[in-house]
Every structure is written in structure tokens, then in C-alpha cells.
Amino acid sequence: MEKLIIKGGVKLKGQVDVSGFKNSAVALIPATVLAGAPCVIDNLPGISDIKILTQILRDLGATVTENGLNPVNGSHSLHIDTTTMTECYADYDMAKNLRASYYFLGAALGRFKKARVAYPGGCNIGVRPIDQHIKGFEALGATVSIEHGIISVEAEKLVGTEIYLDMVSVGATINVMLAAVMAEGRTVIENAAKEPHIVDVANFLNCMGAEIRGAGTDVIRINGVEKLGGCNHTVIPDQIEAGTYMIAAAATGGDVVVNKVIPKHLESVTAKLKEMGVEITEEDESLSVRVNATKPLKNVNIKTLVYPGFPTDLQQPMSALLSVAKGIGIVTETIFEGRFKHVDQLKKMGANIKVEGRVAVIEGVDNLMGATVTATDLRAAASLVIAGLMAEGTTEVENIHFLDRGYDLFQEKIQNLGADVHRVTVED
Ligand SMILES: CC(=O)N[C@H]1[C@@H](OP(=O)(O)OP(=O)(O)OC[C@H]2O[C@@H](n3ccc(=O)[nH]c3=O)[C@H](O)[C@@H]2O)O[C@H](CO)[C@@H](O)[C@@H]1O
Ligand SMILES: C=C(OP(=O)(O)O)C(=O)O
């Protein structure tokens, strides 16, 4: 097991470059299954989810070659040729480690009219059903069955139709889009998710020759095309990574410029941090985050919502910050019912937080104290590192492999900002 050892109390200072967006990249890679010619994807983050997806593509028969590595932010460029693939069967060992393995279902259904993929893994933050993905595939004419943990989808042909998603789901919106781009006729997805990566994936597919309109709004219209070509594409910046550094900067009373971001994607986070008293200056592609040491940050209420609301993926990092802000903050998690597993760990460090169902009431304390804590999922890991950066003394964060799922060069990036942090391997 690897753990991070953090000596708290250092104010983060300097500049940090944000990598490509995990949640976009993990959809773009499976989307290449639809391409009728090779694709090049730039600005892929060097995270374990991408390594696993690349391996799955290779195991499925695609040719994936590394085009280059950016040493500053760790991003990669991949040349991906899926034209050699003839079918798609991703077994349990291939699919279990990440959520996004389910995108092979939509993409392969679109191309081969058939796919078999084991039930996806991903962060354990709630039940995470996939009924809306299945509803969309069935509406397009596929039959779907689940046996021994393997999801099988098959259609003689796919025919466009109107699909109303019962809840706003990022995964279902992308999966249905992937399945529908080569269906006969027109598909309309209503109550679609509007997250920036929906737009990124739609742009990628359109660059291959798809006809998708309305991505980024809650109605997406897709005119099916007979075949798709290849595409060169650059992944959009990771607003969750950016938000994590903004929160870490605020938490340590620091002064950090977060570069290579699209500030619009972070409006809800910027607004909340400003409400707490953090000074934020927006440039075209950067956000400067600064805390005025004479004024204590005040607590705020957070309600996680679908985009453009406050992202659930930043709720855990933000609750670490709120645990030392003045007054009481109420955090309502509306997306995932099991996303408070980090709270027990924060309490070990002295936080005063009461969780009742989907609500956490946080009463700010003067200081957190270093402790040995265990990450239970990706953003829990980020929240515990932020807590460690603020705490008095030394914090050890165990299960740091979760962090590697979503943060490219995390340790190096915060070290560059002055953090006293290092990684050690210990016997399990
Ligand atoms: C790889 C990826 O992009 N992961 C992101 C994606 O996860 P993911 O795509 O799994 O999240 P969804 O947007 O689908 O989930 C939203 C809500 O809908 C529910 N639901 C979803 C699908 C379905 O068929 N049935 C159903 O009930 C989920 O349990 C959850 O309560 O969006 C989440 C919400 O922004 C983020 O936290 C994750 O980081
Ligand atoms: C929940 C997350 O990821 P995944 O959906 O891949 O588990 C996340 O990125 O915070």
C-alpha cells in the first residue's frame, strides 16, 4: 500500500497547470471504438483510469501508441486505431476498476450492434444504478440482459427515437449519445446532462462526422450517420482538478494561480469560495486564488447539483475546507447518497461534523490535528490531503491509489506549490 505523509501548516504559493479532464478523457477513449479511421487524443491526463482504459482497448484488439508526454503537467497524447477491432467483450477484470468501462457498451453497440461488458466499478459513493443507460439502449432497439455480472447488449438495427431520461445522468447521456450516432434516423435525448464533458464528447464525435446538436443543453438531437471517420482532439481542462487546487490554496491561506482552466466551468466553485471571503481573480485561462490573512474565512452552505450547480465531485474537498471555517456550514449531497465516507476520517483530525442522511452539518473548529486517515474513494483522498495540508503536525493518508485514479502528478504539483509531502510504500 502507498500512503502520503504530509506536514501541515505550509501556505501553498505559486502556479499550477491543470491537466485534461478525467471524466471527459474516460469517455473519449471508448468513443474511439466508433471511429472508422485512427484518432489522436491530446492532453490526456496521466492517471490510472486512462492507463486501464488504454489497456482495455488493446485487449479488445485496437492499436494504441503513445505520441508524446508533456513533462510539465504529465499529459499524454495517444494515437488510437480501433479499425482492427471485430467485437467487444470486456470481462470483470477489465471493467471492475473504473466507472467509465460502461462507455464501451454504447460505443460498441453503435459500431458492432453488439457488446458484452462486465458491470462497471468506480468510486463507492452510492448505489449507482445504470437503468437509464439500459432504458436508452432499449429505446434504440437493443435487447439488454445481465447475467453473472456481464451486461450484454444486442440489436439487429438501431433506430433513432425520443428518449426522456428520468434523472439527469452524465453516464447515461454519453452512453446513449454513443449508441445513437450511427442509428437510423433521429434521436432526441431529453433531460440530458449539461456537464462540460458532454460537450467535449459531442465535439469529438462531430469531428469524426457525427451530427449531434444541442450538447450542453438539456435536449440533444442526433441525426444518425452511416459511418464515422477519425479525428484529432484535445481534451478540455479538468475543472474538478482545478477546483481541488483552488480549495487547497484557500485552505492553506495561500496564493496560487491555477492555469490552463476554463473559468466558466468553475463558476459555482468560484462563487462559493468568494462567499467565504477568498479573493479570486479571473483571467482568460487562469484563476488566481488568494486569502487575506487578516480575515478568517466564513462558513457557507453547499448543495451539490448537476452542472452548472456545485459539483458533487468537489463536495468532499470543500467539506475539508469548511471544517475550519468560522461558523456553521450545511452541506447537502443531492447526487450520491454515500458520499460522506470521508467525514469519519476528518473527525479523527478534530473536525466537528454531524451527518444525517444526505446532510452534513459542519461547525468550524480552530485547527485540525494531524492523524493517520484512510481514503475510501478518489475525492475522499483529495479531501484528506487538503485536511492534512491545514492540520497541525503530520498526517498520513492511506489508500492513496484512489488519488491516482483522478489526479495527474498530484504530489509533484502540490510540492511545487511548497507543500511538505512525500509518498511511501508500506507492507499491506
Ligand atoms: C466517469 C464519470 O464521468 N463520473 C462522473 C459521473 O458519474 P456517473 O455518470 O456515474 O453519474 P450520473 O450522472 O450518471 O449519476 C447521477 C445520479 O443519477 C443516478 N443514476 C444514474 C444513472 C442511471 O442509470 N440511474 C441512476 O439512478 C446515480 O445513482 C446518481 O444518483 O457523473 C457524476 C455526477 O456528476 C460524477 O460524480 C462522476 O465523477
Ligand atoms: C466519482 C468519480 O469518479 P467515477 O465516476 O469514475 O467513480 C469522481 O471523479 O469523483
Automatic annotation (TrEMBL):
Residues annotated as binding UDP-N-acetyl-alpha-D-glucosamine: 99, 128-132, 313, 335
Active-site residues annotated for this sequence: 123
Domain Enolpyruvate transferase: 7-413
Keywords for this protein: Cell cycle, Cell division, Cell shape, Cell wall biogenesis/degradation, Cytoplasm, Peptidoglycan synthesis, Pyruvate, Transferase
Pfam family, one: EPSP_synthase
Enzyme Commission designation: 2.5.1.7
Pathway(s) it belongs to: Cell wall biogenesis; peptidoglycan biosynthesis
GO biological process, alphabetically ordered: cell division; cell wall organization; peptidoglycan biosynthetic process; regulation of cell shape; UDP-N-acetylgalactosamine biosynthetic process
Biological function: Cell wall formation. Adds enolpyruvyl to UDP-N-acetylglucosamine.
Family of this protein: Belongs to the EPSP synthase family. MurA subfamily.
Protein name: UDP-N-acetylglucosamine 1-carboxyvinyltransferase
